[in-house]
Amino acid sequence: MGHMVRLRGAFWPQDRWGRITNAAIPREQIAQPALEAGDEAADAALERFGDQLHSVYLSGPAARGRPGGAAVLILLRLGAMLKDAPGSLSWEHALAAQLRKRHPRVGRIAVAVFNWKDVFTQDGGFSPATFRLAVNSVCIAGRNMNHMLAPQRIDASVMNGDILGFRPRMLNAAGRLAAARSPDRVRAAAMDAGHAVLAAGFALVLEREQIYTEDLDLRRDLFTLNFPNRTADMALAYAMATRPSADAMKALIFIDSACRWMTPMTDAWLNANNPQRAERLKA
User: Fold this and answer.
1) Tens digit of each residue's pLDDT (9 = 90 or more) over 23-48
2) Which of 78, 92, 176, 270 could, after both became Cys, cross-link 189 (CB 3.0–4.6 A)?
């Protein structure tokens, strides 16, 4: 019986000053299933937002020609007013679920909608939207504005979101596990918990390493290189993120254990770099 060989991760390209540049491949090189999912998302965005829609981008592993899922980033025009703002997040989740069902070969799919001012901020604060578009996205519909985004520096502002969001993400996953009534929902929540641990762990060592990756194996390895006593814990997080358990109790035990050892580390970083627990730091 054959077995799957997992593709090894890669580090992002950087310019001569060490800033992260866009790792996405040209549109014509992207796998057809991912493009089809992206085109369907673009059609859904046009139907929902009409002339408020500026452009649509494919991100995630698919944008780099790799397996492991995709993200669709939807950018609205300057001055666009969301009439149904409270329901926008549920629309993103519903569209993502629809895309996952209709395009199972792509894998995990996420959808995010950004206002123009989310990307082009006025206060000098770090923008997660700008970062995502600048380091890994390819335009699949509308006017491409990637050329307007500068390469991104590696500093505390980049790390803040994954560190600050660690505990809320774990609590959210635990809540979903408690309410889950199917193995698929259990696996989805367990996978998110594994991703949260790997993201927070990598964020804690990112500024020291000065190299960037979104590939889970390298995030795991860079953290354990700095904290070898946590090798087994990060191996478990990687397994949960890539081969999630359908056993809700096992996943809940993983979340409890991870929070116990990771939270003191994230709290120490926040106390030193973001004592106010601000969602965005100055870039």
Assistant:
1) 999 999 999 999 999 999 999 999 99
2) 176
CATH code, 116: 3.30.460
**59 DSSP β-pair partners:** 71
On whether residue 79 sits in a domain, the answer given is yes
Strands 109-114 and 138-142, by their bridges, are unpaired
Residue 22: inside a domain = no
With a cut of 70, say whether residue 219 has pLDDT above it: yes
Tokens of 161: 């979101």
The DSSP-derived string for 77-93 is: PTT---TTHHHHHHHHH
What is the Cβ-side half-sphere exposure of residue 52, based on CA atoms within 13 angstroms? 16
Same-domain check for residues 73 and 168: no
Q: How many domains does the chain have?
A: 2
141 and 111 within one domain: yes
For CA atoms 10, 15, 19, 25, the dihedral sign is negative
Whether 2 is covered by a domain: the verdict is no
Please state, as a whole number, how many other Cβ atoms lie within 10 Å of the Cβ of residue 277: 9
